[in-house]
Amino acid sequence: MPVRRRFLYFMEGIHTDLRRLTQQVTQMLARTISSLEYPNVTVMRWVLDQQPLVHNRRRELEHEVFKLLATQQPIVAFDLRYILAMMHLALELERIADAITLIMRHATQLVAEHASLPLPHGSDELFKIVQQMLLTSLQAFEERNLETAHSLAAAMQWVLASESRLHAALTVAMTTDPQGAELHLMLEQIILSLVAIAHRATTISERVIYMLTCTAVDLIHAPPTQP
Q: How far apart are alpha carbons 190 and 196 in whole angstroms?
């Protein structure tokens, strides 16, 4: 097999493993959001069981990348950026899985103690936007689409504004109901973890832009002009 074809063959194998990891984490997030809206103990346990599996898959993928670099020399600069982007994406997915697990641990405790999740008004919109941000960033990677990657900037600004509104609502709730302070703090941790997932999704899009243009951008603090 020619050198270039052999290299692409092994790289596609790593990409296939990355797709499996992507599917696992997106399912975790989808089921977490479903459980936040309609608590289901069985689904919650399934989500919690996924974290060690995600960690194992990420480590295996990293091992395959190192093996590829050690045995198959990248031919062009884009090859190296693409490989590094896959490693970066795997790491971000692992961190997203950690944030999802934290959300689910809080949710499980709240359901056990209160039989419900009294999240502040507007939380459901945040759930949908964060889930869509992750899917959009992964789509940008798969399709190598700059416009799709840049679209995360506006979404991230919406998430930050939503975080401020929800934080204000929970602060008021803690002030008017001091006895429920622990409950409201846990609800705020759920919101913060969702915002952290949005940050990770935006970082993935930043990496996609770097992979395609060799240009570093900051979609969170200084949204660039759409290409």
A: 10
Query: Looking at the domain 3-213, which fold is it?
Result: Methane Monooxygenase Hydroxylase; Chain G, domain 1 (1.20.58)
pLDDT per residue over 139-179, tens digit each?
999 999 999 999 999 999 999 999 999 999 999 888 888 77
Residues 90/24, Cβ–Cβ less than 8 Å: no
Listed by start position, the domains of the chain span: 3-213
The count of C-alpha atoms lying within 13 angstroms of the C-alpha of 5, restricted to the half-sphere facing its C-beta, is 2
Block residue for tokens 């999802």: 100
Q: What is the pLDDT of residues 65-76, one digit of tens each?
A: 988 888 877 667
Question: Which candidate, 209, 89, 200, 203, places its Cα nearest to that of 147?
Answer: 209
- Alpha carbons 123 and 145: distance in angstroms, whole number: 30
| pTM, full prediction | 0.91
Q: Which two tokens stand for residue 84?
A: 């590094």
Nearest one of 51, 44, 45 to 25, comparing CA atoms: 51
* Cβ-contact 149, 208 below 8 angstroms: yes
